[in-house]
Amino acid sequence: MSENKKTIVVFSGDLDKAMAAMIIASGAAAMGYEVTLFFNFWGLNLLRRPEAVCVKKNLLEAMFGWMMPRGARRATLSKMHMGGMGTAMMKYVMKTKNVSTPEQLMLDAQNMGVKFIACSMSMDVMGIKQEELIDGVEIGGVATYLGSADEANVNLFI
Amino acid sequence: MTDYTLNCRGMQCPGPIMELFKQMKSAQPGDTATISVTDMGFKKDIEAWCRKTKNELVSLVEDAGVITAVIRKG
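ok -> structure tokens follow
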């Protein structure tokens, strides 16, 4: 176990939870720690490029892709979303208080050396292809996660 | 010995420690950084940051909503 390693499982694609994960990740990187984030299930949507990418999908995959948010910019609050009003209000307040947007926080985290790993099984289930993901994302499975988690002394599930 | 000045006023967590981390990475041991921050969580954060990154917190003062810390690279 190394005191220098931290991992976070980013399971949720909610705006608020994603922000918590990114702030902890960037903060940990700024403390000099080696940080790895594992994105699976709804969290995977945070890694999607904001623009539509032309890839071959079957009907179900295409439907999934169409129904789920493309990227952190479209993430919504886990509470008080209120058909978009609540999320818009929260984003407005955060902007006035100079809080970075989730997509900016993700970029900052990557620039600080935080590693992003997408779960291959979740990608397969949700029909998300690598071409649809932002740059700098590696693909791995549960053994990759466990290997990192075993070496780390902080492992969060968000 | 160089003294770096970082103005992180108006920045939210974790902005200030990220800026400090980047600055200290390129600094030489013994160099100092003076950082001014308006995020009130920074007062506790900087103590933890210095302890964990093995840098020395030389001074920490709060005046009129601005926290100013001097850190020496260890």
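Residues 15-30 of chain A form the longest helix (16 residues).
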